[in-house]
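Hypothesis: this fold can be encoded by more than one sequence.
Test: take the structure tokens below, design a sequence, compare later.
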């Protein structure tokens, strides 16, 4: 694994508490996760991103941390964590942690101390206003759940700022002591074997907040110092930014100069592409993707997009126009209870695509064919569903479905003791959808997913190459694009509609072998050298290799 390992990685997002319980207390833990490393190894993923693992009151799924130097005792010990990173590394899998430092929990001893007395050494670690800020009802991230960003604390006798929930006070990043402390936190986890961090809420971390100024100016020197320090400590560690900002601003999170290398975060979640993929799926139309690929922001050399279809949050459609969002809602969230905050969908992918295997394959083939490194959330590889009876985003955070036994093999605890209920009923219940059944079935979604992951690893040009849309007349539903890199060239065809089509691509430059199918949804006649008369089934896809080189 080289220093640029992240450009050819497949990221798998795990929530430790809902993945595998090893001691029967109803919550997943590190030993449980360790016991599933062979499963993950066969799946072929090369990087685990763990949702927060620290002690927390768990009011926002652990994104409210009360101790940065420990793990939640229910997950195990620091020793268990170190063993996880070591055992994962033995299988070529790295572990990346969520770094949630825009805010702490209001139960963090720093905040408790800060509230208790104005002279506290931690007072200035948070953001205060002695008067009621005029803009205190502006800028909330969770409309409907949270009405203000400044809340009065009786004990402190002052207003504190919180970009997210009121139990998540923002740290004051203008304070050098805060910077120094978080640097120590990062060094601590790298020393225990972590390979980097997903930077939660990056734009808000670097935002300098003062009452009445929203949004405040951004201080990118925070990212500069993180990159410097993490790289100094572990040369191949990475920073993965969660920065859902305007496309024109994204590049600055990766590099300090528009004409220079990536000297900030190595990886950026692609929040521009994500809703465009869903719009294309909703409209059976390649146009949103052609637009996204032809207008894509070019990240500085060394930086990498991370693509995703679903994650642990609602599917955020706020970057679409009202009409586009309406189409996506109609297709994927027809009932009001499936929607969240007026902008998003609280569902997993398989039920959004009505459990249609061909449509699910198309969606994931498409994601894996997009420029960047794909990230997949646990359970997507078997087509898990959501539980809309649970609150908000909890709906899509139910336990992993390992088998059709009690609690789906997640835990031996009594049902009532489980951290969240296992989905037992309906088409996506554990009797129907589980790992064991799919391991026995060579045609299962799981086996297909493994093949997808391994095919991507054989096609490094997708992670590292230059992407271009193939500009020939095609049916509206077909996206044709290609990647070219020293490693080879590849043509990718995806049909976003459920009707078969035949397309003529014509001869392409850079083809020095007889083209052949690398990944297909079903049997097709071999492609001709002129790439003419290529059939594509409804919701079909073909990854066609044009050239392969030994030079890598
Ligand atoms: C983004 C995380 O993805 C989300 O789950 C969380 O609620 C907020 N940041 C606050 O940390």
């Amino acid at each position: 694994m080289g220093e640029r390992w992240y450009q050819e990685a497949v990221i798998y997002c795990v929530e430790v508490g809902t993945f595998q319980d090893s001691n029967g207390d109803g919550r997943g833990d590190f030993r449980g996760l360790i016991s599933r490393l062979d499963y993950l190894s066969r799946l072929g993923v090369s990087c685990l991103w763990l949702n927060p693992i620290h002690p927390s009151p768990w009011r926002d799924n652990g994104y409210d941390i009360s101790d940065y130097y420990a793990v939640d005792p229910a997950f195990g010990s620091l020793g268990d964590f170190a063993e996880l990173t070591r055992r994962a590394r033995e299988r070529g899998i790295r572990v990346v942690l969520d770094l949630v430092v825009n805010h702490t929990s209001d139960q963090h001893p720093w905040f408790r101390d800060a509230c208790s007395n104005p002279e506290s050494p931690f007072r200035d670690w948070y953001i205060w206003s002695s008067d009621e800020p005029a803009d205190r009802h502006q800028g909330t991230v969770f409309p409907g759940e949270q009405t203000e960003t400044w809340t009065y604390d009786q004990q402190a006798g002052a207003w504190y700022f919180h970009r997210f929930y009121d139990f998540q006070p923002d740290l004051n990043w203008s304070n050098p002591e805060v910077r120094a402390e978080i640097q120590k936190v990062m060094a601590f986890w790298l020393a225990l074997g972590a390979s980097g961090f997903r930077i939660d809420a990056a734009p808000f971390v670097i935002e300098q907040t003062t009452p009445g100024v929203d949004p405040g100016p951004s201080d990118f020197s925070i990212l500069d110092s993180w990159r410097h320090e993490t790289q100094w400590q572990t040369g191949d560690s990475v920073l993965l930014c969660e920065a859902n900002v305007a496309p024109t601003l994204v590049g600055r999170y990766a590099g300090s100069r528009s004409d220079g290398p990536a000297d900030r975060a190595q990886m950026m979640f692609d929040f521009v592409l994500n809703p465009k993929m869903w719009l294309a799926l909703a409209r059976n139309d390649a146009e949103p993707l052609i637009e996204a690929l032809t207008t894509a922001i070019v990240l500085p050399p060394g930086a990498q997009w991370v693509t995703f279809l679903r994650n642990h949050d609602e599917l955020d459609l706020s970057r679409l126009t009202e009409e586009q969002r309406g189409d996506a809602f109609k297709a994927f969230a027809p009932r009001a209870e499936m929607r969240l905050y007026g902008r998003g969908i609280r569902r997993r992918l398989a039920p959004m695509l009505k459990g249609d295997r061909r449509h699910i394959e198309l969606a994931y083939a498409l994601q894996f064919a997009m420029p960047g490194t794909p990230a997949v959330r646990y359970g997507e590889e078997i087509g898990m569903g959501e539980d809309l009876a649970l609150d908000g985003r909890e709906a899509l955070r139910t336990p992993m479905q390992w088998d059709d036994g009690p609690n789906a093999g997640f835990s031996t605890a009594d049902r009532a003791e489980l951290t969240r209920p296992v989905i037992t009923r309906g088409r996506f219940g554990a009797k129907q959808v589980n790992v064991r059944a799919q391991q026995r079935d060579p045609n299962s979604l799981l086996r297909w997913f493994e093949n997808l992951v391994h095919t991507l690893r054989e096609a490094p040009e997708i992670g590292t190459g230059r992407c271009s849309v193939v500009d020939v007349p095609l049916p509206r539903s077909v996206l044709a694009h290609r990647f070219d890199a020293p490693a080879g060239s590849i043509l990718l065809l995806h049909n976003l509609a459920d009707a078969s089509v035949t397309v003529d691509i014509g001869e392409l430059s850079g083809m020095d072998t007889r083209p052949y199918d690398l990944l297909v949804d079903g049997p097709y006649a071999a492609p001709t050298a002129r790439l003419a008369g290529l059939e594509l089934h409804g919701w079909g896809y073909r990854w066609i290799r044009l050239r392969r080189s030994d030079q890598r």
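Residues 176-191 form the longest helix (16 residues). DSSP finds 16 helices and 21 strands in the chain.
Hypothesis status: open.
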